[in-house]
Amino acid sequence: MTTAAGALSASAGVLVGGVVTRRAQDRQWSRDQQLAAYQELLGHYAKFTMELRRAHGDRRGWDYDRGEWSAALMRASLIAPAEVAAEIDEFGHAVDTFLDQVARTRNPLTNPLHPDEFEQARQAPAGAQVQLVNAIRRSLSGDRRGIPFAIGG
């Protein structure tokens, strides 16, 4: 009887340990996927913002695959918690307005923006980026303080 109880307890311990380990691994996998998607999204933003800044400064054309930007927005939104997904949406809208001002209605070859005008146009997405980064930080690490400044771009 004692042996059977010991074996049953050990089996239950292994089963519970397996479930707990599996849940921890699932959470870690999900966190890793979120982090990769957020890095990709913010990386695309930094790249095309810099490309547009240089195009206006050098009075030259620019080329950036906006489809990749849209895909990065979608990937990040799909795996983000609701609070972060809402900030991704706000960020996407702010970037779209920025693109209206610096890429869709102004040609850097014939009508480039002055650096001050470019910075003015970049203020809305920069603010939305801060909100997004802080939502990401809260989601991934519980950081409640956040950061008060935009990163990159």
Structure explained in plain terms:
With 153 residues, this protein is mainly α. It contains 4 helices and no strands. It has helices at residues 2-58, 66-79, 82-104, 115-141. Helix 1 packs antiparallel against helix 4 (115-141). The chain is elongated and about 90 Å long. It starts with a helix and ends in a 12-residue tail after the last helix. The mean pLDDT is 88.
Topology:
Elements: H1 2-58, H2 66-79, H3 82-104, H4 115-141
Helix pairs in contact: 1-2, 1-4, 2-3, 3-4
Name the features.
mainly alpha
Portion of residues in beta strands equals under 5%
Main sheet summary: none
Counted by DSSP, the helix tally is 4
Terminal Cα separation, in Å? 70 Å
Order of helices and strands: HHHH
Supply Rg. 23 Å
The coarse overall form would be: elongated
